[in-house]
Amino acid sequence: MTVLFFSLTVWAISTVAGFLGSLTGLGGGVIVVPALALAMGVDIKYAIGASLVSVIATSSGAAAAYVKEGYSNIRIGLLLEIATTIGAIAGAYLAARITTHAIAIIFGLVLVWSAIQSLFGEHLEHEAIVASDALCRRFRLGGDYPVNGVPRKYGVRNLPAGFSLMFGAGTLSGLLGIGSGAVKVIAMDKAMKIPFKVSTTTSNFMIGVTAAASAGVYLSRGYIDPRVAMPVMLGVLGGAFLGTKVLVHARVGTLRLVFGVVILLLAAEMIFSGITGKV
Amino acid sequence: MNDRRLENLIGNLLRAGVLLAAAVVFAGGVFYLAQNHAAKVDFHAFAEESANLRTVGGIVRSAVELNSGGVMQLGLLLLIATPVARVIFAAVGFHLEGDRMYTIVSLIVLAVLIISLLHAA
Fold first, then answer.
1. Nearest-CA distance B65 → chain A (Å)
2. Which domain holds residue A80?
């Protein structure tokens, strides 16, 4: 195929991925990587390199908007980034050690899990506020977030469990070139009992820094090819921007269903292609 | 300077960084498409690209020579730098707040990022 056809097609796919990723909160990487690998015949290493770059773009680009809302907690983010960045370097090393078939299969399994989250995940914001435990008090992790314009204080618990889960989230991010925001949210929301809104916005803050930790390794190994990454980055960034504009009007329930089914199909194809050695 | 004001400042700087990076990538992309639009591409097999797009020095040299690949890669490098800048700002901000614990936490994260980026030095 010609350069023009490749660039425009990848740009269009990435725009849709960024749009859906932003609306559902799962990020664009989970669609971009399988779409490039399966539909465009791109080697998975170039695909995860381009995806990783787009993950940084959406995370840094959305930071200003999230900060204005007053939900993200910079202390929690930074402390847990010690775990995610070390995990990300480990993941990036692992990506070079295992075969592309294995990466495809692991990616497929993560997709199945993302699809289940999208289709059946509970999205109830648990409003139960807990008191910080001793360790989290020592690190002054508690904070406040606005509820109907009034600041409400919250506590944080189970730092070691959150830290371990974050190491895993970082490893997945470095191995697969995705933001793994869903794992980060689970670590904060479920394990550390941080309010859902604070967890999701702080996760967004962490995704960019985590991805930057694998980016150096990716760059030096040649995974980031500008001819692939250029249309992916511009597409995902534009799509994510559109996503934030229509968020208020969109029927998110229907979208999650569509998104869930799409990634379930991609997952099946990815695992099949990995096993048969096509990817 | 409190946490909220610090985060606001950082957020706006990051958005500016992303827009700058996207503009550079876009400019390089226009160059690239203008010169190569009809050429054939195939990314089916992973081939290590030339060393000059895999190191920071090589990328800068290639971009200065207005090589389209170099310009696009420079934009991507600027993008990779935005989260690093975020952590540096946080370290400076916590230091100004007199918060020694989180200045150290920020510096640890920064050290890990630098270790990764040294791969591409």
1. 16
2. 3-276
